[in-house]
Design brief:
408 residues, alpha/beta, Aspartate Aminotransferase, domain 2, 7-stranded mixed β-sheet, 4-stranded antiparallel β-sheet, disordered C terminus
C-alpha cells in the first residue's frame, strides 16, 4: 500500500476500519480467553474519558506535564502499597510487563556489576517464566539458565540451587506463571538470591492486581510480595487485572536507591540538554498513565474486591466444570483466574479446534499439550455456555476417535 495522494473522508476511514475489525476476536462477547480484560461498561466509560483527556500529551518530560508526573507517582505508590513495599521503596511505570521485566533485569545486571564486580552476569529463571526474561537476557547480555519444574509445574528449588553460581545476578519466580497459573516457591527462591547478595524478581504481572484482593476475600495466597525477605523487585500490570487499557505496567523496587542507581538512564553529552528515562522508551503516551490513575481511583479497594469475587466464583465454576469431564484434567494447582487443561486420553488440540468452530478462542500450549484460559469478569455471563460447548466438543471428539478405531 502507498500513502493516498488525497485524504479520505472521516466516515469512510472509520467504515473501513470497522469492516476490518469485524474479523477480530470477540472479546466483548466473552468469547476470547486472553489478551483483554473487560471489567464492565462503567469501567470502559471511565477509561475512555481519561484517554481523551490525555490523548496528545507526552510523558517524556514530567516538568512540562506535572499532572502526569503526579499521577505516575500515585499509581506506583498505590501499587507498592498493594504489594506491601516498605517506606523506602520506589518505582516507575512502563508500557507493559515485558518492559517492566527488561528494567528489572537491567537493574539486577547493573547492580551485580557495581556491587559485586560481575563481568558476565547470569540469571536463573523457571522454565515456565515469561519469554520476556529470555528476551532481556539476549538484549542485555546475561547468560540464561532455565530451572526445571516439579510435578506441580512450579520451579524446582533444588534444581535452582544447583544453577546458582558466584556470577548469578538475578533469580526469578512467577506469581503466578502464565502457562499454568501456579505460584513458584518465592520464599525459597528469594532465599537463594539473598545468600549470594543477588537480586530477586517476582513476576506478578498477572497476579499483582488480583492476588492482594483474593487474600482480602480470605483465599489462601502463597507468599510472593515484599513481605518475603530477599524480594528486590516486583512487576505488576495495571492493564491486566488492574483493568486499565494497554499499555500500563509498574515495576516496584524494595530500595528506591536501586531505582535511581541502576534503572534510571541519564545522559547530557549532546546539545539537547539533560535526558533522563526510567524505561526503555523515550517519548511515552500519557493516556495509559492517566487511565491507570483514573481506574484505580474509580474502582478503589471496594471495586477491586467486588471484581475479584466475580473472578473467583467464575473461575471456580469453570474449573469444577472442566474437572467434571472425565477426559479432561487441569494441569497443576492454579491459584487465581489463569489455568490450562489437557487430557491423558484424547487429543486436546482437536478439542480446541472444535471449540474454535463454536467461536470460542482458546490459546494452545505445549509441554504438556493444553488449552489455556485467562478468566475476566465478562466470562461470568458465558461460563455455562462455554462448559456446555466444551462437553459437546469432548463428546464429539470421543465419538470420532471411536469410529476411527472401529474402522481401522
Amino acid at each position: 500500500m502507498q500513502l493516498p495522494k488525497q485524504g479520505t473522508p472521516r466516515d469512510e476511514v472509520i467504515a473501513r476500519m470497522r469492516e476490518r475489525k469485524a474479523a477480530d476476536a470477540d472479546w466483548r462477547g466473552g468469547r476470547t480467553w486472553s489478551l483483554v480484560y473487560p471489567a464492565g461498561e462503567d469501567v470502559d466509560a471511565m477509561l475512555r474519558e481519561a484517554h481523551d483527556l490525555y490523548l496528545y500529551e507526552n510523558a517524556l518530560n514530567p516538568f512540562r506535564f506535572p499532572s502526569l508526573r503526579q499521577m505516575e507517582d500515585d499509581v506506583v505508590s498505590m501499587t507498592a502499597g498493594l504489594l506491601h513495599a516498605p517506606d523506602e521503596s520506589g518505582g516507575a511505570m512502563t508500557s507493559g510487563g515485558t518492559e517492566s521485566i527488561l528494567m528489572a533485569v537491567k537493574t539486577a545486571r547493573d547492580r551485580a556489576r557495581a556491587e559485586r564486580g560481575i563481568e558476565r552476569p547470569e540469571m536463573v529463571v523457571p522454565y515456565s517464566a515469561h519469554p520476556a526474561f529470555a528476551k532481556a537476557a539476549k538484549y542485555l547480555g546475561l547468560d540464561f539458565k532455565a530451572v526445571p519444574l516439579d510435578d506441580d509445574y512450579r520451579a524446582d528449588v533444588a534444581a535452582a540451587a544447583e544453577l546458582v553460581t558466584e556470577n548469578t545476578a538475578l533469580i526469578v519466580g512467577s506469581a503466578p506463571n502464565y502457562p499454568f497459573g501456579v505460584v513458584d516457591p518465592i520464599p525459597e527462591l528469594a532465599a537463594l538470591a539473598a545468600e549470594r547478595n543477588a537480586s530477586f524478581h517476582t513476576d506478578s504481572c498477572l497476579g499483582g492486581f488480583l492476588l492482594p484482593f483474593l487474600e482480602r476475600l480470605g483465599e489462601k495466597v502463597p507468599p510472593f510480595d515484599f513481605r518475603v525477605p530477599g524480594v528486590t523487585t516486583i512487576s505488576a500490570d495495571v492493564h491486566k487485572y488492574g483493568y486499565c487499557t494497554k499499555g500500563a505496567s509498574v515495576i516496584v523496587h524494595r530500595d528506591r536507591a536501586h531505582l535511581h542507581q541502576y534503572q534510571l538512564f541519564m545522559y547530557d553529552r549532546w546539545p539537547g540538554g539533560l535526558y533522563g528515562s526510567f524505561a526503555m522508551a523515550g517519548a511515552r503516551p500519557a493516556a495509559p498513565i492517566a487511565a491507570s490513575w483514573a481506574v484505580m481511583h474509580f474502582l478503589g479497594e471496594e471495586g477491586y474486591v467486588k471484581l475479584a469475587t466475580v473472578l473467583r466464583d467464575t473461575t471456580r465454576k469453570l474449573r469444577e466444570g472442566i474437572e467434571a469431564i472425565p477426559e479432561l484434567r487441569v494441569w497443576g494447582a492454579p491459584v487465581m483466574s489463569v489455568m490450562s487443561f489437557g487430557s491423558d486420553s484424547i487429543d486436546i488440540a482437536a478439542v480446541g479446534d472444535a471449540m474454535d468452530d463454536r467461536s470460542w478462542h482458546l490459546d494452545r500450549q505445549t509441554d504438556p499439550s493444553a488449552l489455556h484460559l485467562m478468566v475476566s469478569p465478562a466470562h461470568a455471563r458465558v461460563a455455562d455456555a462455554f462448559l456446555a460447548d466444551l462437553r459437546d466438543a469432548v463428546a464429539q471428539h470421543g465419538e470420532s476417535r471411536g469410529k476411527e478405531a472401529r474402522y481401522s
